[in-house]
């Protein structure tokens, strides 16, 4: 494993072991990362597992677009909390370095702020703090360190008891009350924005912190302060790239399912979860697929958006609780994407200003959030632009780079699509912010939230399912235990939320619940 100086400890995290009587048959609906990770864990434990996927390939939102020798990740471009991936693969009998090559990124990201200044987020914390002291202002590093100390305490107070355990509703807040100081530390009544104002005097660093709300498709003015743990976790365990692209994660998980005895059927749409009423209550008995085939199962795991579950898969009599949650749970924003094939410059770079991840911040960040989360959502005129470009010959022809451009966008249920010429406008905006790629583009494709909705059956193209807007948002997500015995929900729209590491945590919670309940 290429780690660029990183130690094994950065790939390590909490571990666990499950024992019990193993159920005989499980059907996993959906071959996104959550479904594949759950299936691999169950198959490794001796469960007979079949994964059914409506698309013609696996991966879900961890998508791939291959064209003219370019290989674009159309979903995540960064691995954080790498121990969640290592633990998943270890549970299936392999070490992560045996099947994936992880590269630690340094800097984790390069930021260009609205005032035209640039800042590298060095991977090594002491070096980053020193950079803040020298390039932002004296004392900025001290302020950042105090904020990260607070975020670390928030992580200690919440991660084990919330992120890595089943969560069934607001009453589970009592879990945090074992020590009243934990509630004060987490500060559920406070927003991420207010926490930044308390700790950081420089508006650029407050903007940097605000950005972490968008990791869950949220508004920093409404998202809880505990999302500062996202920034802390990224600093603590680093940001990582997978050689060949992050799509390799889905491919490896699919390989592990098969290696452990499971089956994967693509181009197979499930139309119904079959539920039988019994003396002890409702229990799943299997699924029906398009064309009428019935597959019997003791366990059904749904790696599907919760809205799809209630609208199309479950009997109406079982969906009341989920429907109530979906009515009040805030939906995440969508994303507008541009895939660019770029000819390298004379130095063999995509652009001298671009790191692996580069963030070109909006000059007026709140205007972007007003556009996205206001009463009449629209595409922002001058949004923050996220650019990812890997130094990886496996993803582009010789002499070229594959460049991924992302702009936060409203969902398709809010706005039909971007304004005419939006792609040209974004390229021009990037140029004005110091990254002009227009004269070296050899390939260009645009993808809207409607494409994500079509490809992954994600309602509205909401990237993360539900957002974290509001202090109780985490407790409004659908729980992992479904409304019938033997039924489970996994993935970004269920607990603990969207993003690769949380989806892998979701898979572990579900697999443990299945095996413990047997």
Record the SSE blueprint.
Layout: E1 25-29, H1 33-44, E2 48-52, E3 64-67, E4 70-73, H2 82-91, H3 96-99, E5 102-104, E6 109-112, E7 118-121, H4 125-135, H5 140-163, H6 180-186, H7 192-199, H8 203-210, H9 228-237, E8 240-242, H10 247-259, E9 263-265, E10 270-278, E11 281-289, E12 294-296, E13 299-302, H11 306-313, H12 320-328, E14 334-343, E15 357-360, H13 365-373, E16 385-389, E17 400-409, H14 422-432, E18 441-447, H15 449-456, H16 473-476, E19 487-489, H17 500-517
Parallel strand pairs: 1-2, 1-13, 2-9, 6-15, 13-19
Antiparallel strand pairs: 3-4, 5-8, 6-7, 10-11, 11-12, 14-17, 14-18, 15-16, 16-17
What does this protein structure show overall?
- By secondary structure, the chain is an alpha/beta fold.
- The protein contains 17 helices and 19 strands.
- The chain has a 7-stranded mixed beta sheet. It has a 5-stranded parallel beta sheet with strand order 9-2-1-13-19, with helices on one face. A 3-stranded antiparallel beta sheet has the order 10-11-12, with no helix packed on it.
- Strand 11 and strand 12 form a beta hairpin.
- It is globular.
């Amino acid at each position: 494993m290429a780690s660029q100086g990183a130690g094994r400890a950065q790939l390590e995290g909490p571990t666990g072991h499950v024992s019990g009587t193993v159920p005989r048959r499980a059907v996993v609906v959906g071959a996104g990362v959550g479904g594949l990770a759950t299936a691999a864990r169950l198959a490794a434990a001796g469960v007979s597992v079949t994964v059914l996927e409506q698309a013609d390939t696996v991966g879900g939102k961890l998508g791939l677009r291959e064209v003219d020798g370019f290989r674009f990740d159309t979903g995540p471009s960064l691995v954080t909390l790498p121990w969640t991936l290592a633990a998943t693969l270890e549970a299936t009998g392999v070490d992560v370095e045996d099947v994936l090559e992880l590269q630690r990124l340094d800097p984790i990201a390069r930021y260009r702020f609205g005032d035209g200044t640039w800042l590298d987020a060095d991977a090594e914390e002491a070096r980053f703090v020193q950079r803040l002291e020298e390039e932002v202002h004296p004392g900025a590093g001290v302020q950042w360190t105090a904020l990260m100390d607070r975020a670390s305490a928030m992580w200690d107070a919440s991660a084990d008891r919330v992120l890595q355990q089943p969560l069934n509703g607001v009453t589970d807040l009592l879990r945090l009350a074992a020590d009243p100081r934990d509630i004060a530390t987490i500060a559920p009544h406070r927003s991420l924005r207010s926490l930044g104002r308390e700790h950081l005097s420089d508006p650029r660093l407050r903007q940097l912190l605000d950005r972490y709300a968008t990791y869950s498709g949220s508004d920093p003015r409404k998202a809880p302060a505990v999302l500062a743990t996202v920034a802390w976790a990224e600093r603590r365990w680093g940001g990582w790239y997978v050689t060949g692209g992050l799509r390799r994660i889905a491919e490896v998980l699919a390989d592990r399912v098969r290696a452990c005895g499971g089956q994967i059927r693509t181009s197979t749409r499930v139309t119904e979860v079959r539920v039988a009423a019994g003396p002890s209550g409702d229990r799943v008995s299997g699924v029906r697929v398009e064309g009428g085939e019935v597959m019997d199962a003791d366990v059904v795991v749904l790696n599907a958006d919760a809205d799809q579950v209630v609208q199309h898969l479950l009997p109406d009599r079982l969906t009341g609780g989920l429907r109530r949650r979906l009515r009040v749970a805030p939906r995440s924003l969508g994303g507008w994407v541009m895939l660019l094939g770029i000819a390298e410059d004379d130095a063999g770079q995509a652009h001298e200003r671009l790191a692996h991840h580069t963030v070109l911040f909006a000059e007026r960040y709140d205007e972007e959030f007003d556009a996205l989360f206001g009463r009449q959502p629209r595409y922002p005129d001058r949004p923050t632009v996220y650019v990812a470009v890997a130094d990886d010959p496996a993803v582009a022809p010789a002499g070229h780079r594959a460049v991924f451009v992302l702009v936060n966008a409203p969902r398709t249920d809010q706005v039909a699509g971007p304004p005419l010429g939006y792609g040209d406008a974004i390229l021009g905006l990037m140029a004005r912010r110091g990254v002009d790629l227009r004269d070296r583009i050899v390939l260009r494709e645009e993808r809207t939230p409607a494409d994500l909705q079509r490809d992954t059956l994600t309602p509205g193209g909401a990237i993360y399912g539900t957002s974290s807007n509001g202090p109780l948002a985490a407790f409004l997500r659908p729980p992992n235990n479904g409304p019938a015995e033997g039924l489970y929900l996994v993935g970004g729209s269920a607990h603990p939320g969207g993003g690769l590491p949380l989806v892998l945590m979701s898979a572990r919670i579900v697999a443990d619940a299945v095996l413990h309940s047997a």
